[in-house]
Write a structure and sequence with these properties.
The chain has 185 residues and is of the alpha+beta class. It is built from five helices and ten strands, in the order E-E-E-H-E-H-E-H-E-H-E-E-E-H-E.
Length: 185
């Protein structure tokens, strides 16, 4: 497994706008439709990456636990589906349904959104406040395939709870590690 780290977009960055296909509903959705009243989590994931497969159940739990608290969740795949057919929109829809995702799973076919967010790997996480200002970027938690650490979502959960409770966000943030985004040639 190749291990690529997040590029760590600067804190305070305003969430770049997007309008992408939701592979489950078949509708194009934009950020304004998906943002939460308290926070918005943008996740760059894909179907085939072992790092993402390792955390998929926790992504589903996060959505279920926090969407009712005013947090919007968006999963985006920007991988080249021609060379990585497991990441095609049809397979994304199947994965979203089988993983019980309660949030949209969007396809960034042109890869412009991944570039706008400076996404580097899957998974790559971004948490924005109610004003869509970046307050966290980095890992879900310390768990990785094979390291024996349980998947808890600790880092994202801690950030979301602090935002909801109007507390300070921990500025010590670790980059995510995963497979590199599969860029088109």
């Amino acid at each position: 497994m190749a291990r690529t780290e997040s590029t760590m977009l600067p804190l305070g960055t305003i969430a770049p706008e997007f309008n992408l296909l939701d592979t489950v509903s078949g509708k194009n959705l934009h950020l304004d439709q998906l943002k939460g009243s308290e926070a918005t989590v943008i996740m760059f994931i894909c179907n085939h990456c072992p790092f993402v497969k390792h955390i998929n159940p926790e992504l589903s739990r996060l959505g279920q636990d926090y969407e009712k608290k005013g947090v919007g969740f968006v999963a985006i795949s920007s991988n080249d589906a021609v060379n990585y057919p497991e990441d095609s929109p049809e397979k994304m829809k199947e994965n979203a349904i089988s993983q019980n995702f309660t949030f949209p799973y969007l396809y960034d076919e042109g890869q412009e959104v991944a570039k706008a967010y400076d996404a580097a790997c899957t998974p790559d996480f971004y948490v924005f406040d109610a004003n869509l200002k970046l307050v966290y970027r980095g890992q879900l938690d310390d768990s990785r395939p094979g390291n024996g650490i349980p998947v808890t979502g600790r880092d994202i959960r801690k950030t979301l709870t602090a935002l909801i409770d109007k507390k300070e966000i921990d500025l010590e943030q670790k980059p995510s590690i995963g497979c590199n985004i599969k860029w088109k040639k």
